[in-house]
Description:
Blueprint: E1 13-14, E2 21-22, E3 28-29, E4 37-38, H1 54-65, H2 70-82, E5 90-95, H3 101-109, E6 116-122, H4 125-134, E7 139-142, E8 155-161, H5 167-173, E9 174-185, H6 191-195, E10 214-226, H7 230-239, H8 248-256, E11 262-273
Parallel strand pairs: 4-7, 5-6, 5-8, 6-7, 8-9
Antiparallel strand pairs: 1-2, 2-3, 9-11, 10-11
Helix pairs in contact: 1-7, 2-3, 7-8
Bound molecules: S-adenosylmethionine and zinc ion.
Zinc ion (ZN) binds next to loops.
Amino acid sequence: xxxxxxxxxSPLRQHLPSQGYYCQNKHHFDxxxxxxxxxxxxxxxxxxxxxxxxxxxxxxxxxLEAGYYQPLAQAIAALIDSHRTKDQPMHILDMxxxxxYYSRQIxxxxxxxxxxxxxxxxxxxxxILAAAKKQPNARFIVASNKRMPYADHFFDLILRVYAxxxxxxxxxxLKTGGLLLLVTPGPRHLWQLKKFIYREVxxxxxxxxxxxxxxxxxxQRLGYTISPDQEQRMALLQMTPFAWRAKGEAQSNIQRAxxxxxxxxxxVTLAIKS
Length: 274
Ligand SMILES: C[S@@+](CC[C@H](N)C(=O)[O-])C[C@H]1O[C@@H](n2cnc3c(N)ncnc32)[C@H](O)[C@@H]1O
Ligand SMILES: [Zn+2]
């Protein structure tokens, strides 16, 4: 069983036929009808709706589903495929998975997807609900990246795309020789969008912080230009950490700009746990 109890950390077992989960200390967790598990007990919730809001989630879903970040998904799938051991199932966790876009892309793009055991975790319940509905073959939970209720050394690969990290948990969950696949913004990511918002746009630093004991084995910089229409531009803006700065005039300038082209710039890093 991949899961541990978020309250007492003992292994979780599945009840049949209700398919809820329980531990030896009788802590019990229902399985939602969409198939996901909520392993974030109320006492660990810092707000009523932690994580990204519904508005942000919907904006991201519309934008991603339109395919603008498909080349990134392809790079992720290719990296996963190039590090697979033949005929061995691979346990993969997407941490801070949002509504599961990359998980679905991995299932679609990787070879022999039936050999992949795909998991996703996010603190936003609405995002997990949407992810679980769309991908019945993957297993999604609501929980925090700070305390991920999975057994030690369960995963072969952890994917983190623009999501908050917790190094000690990544280290605990990965097998020795397991892989961490990170996507972080490159120096010119969304440059033209930022020019509407900041008087002086600064390049992102390219320094990648890896957990202790991890060694980088590959790094790719992936950049291309996108031309989202007015609606998709606003969705893209909503997805960014600087959305709150774009008020009034900046927002309408972004919306009205004719034929706006925007650079993407991703740094894709693969590291191994020694
Ligand atoms: C910028 S989004 C990226 C989502 C997804 N990886 C993607 O690229 O489409 C960050 C995600 O991290 C989630 N998040 C924020 N804090 C979290 C935490 N402490 N634990 C788990 N997820 C968290 C948010 O709800 C959101 O879905
Ligand atoms: Zn328990």
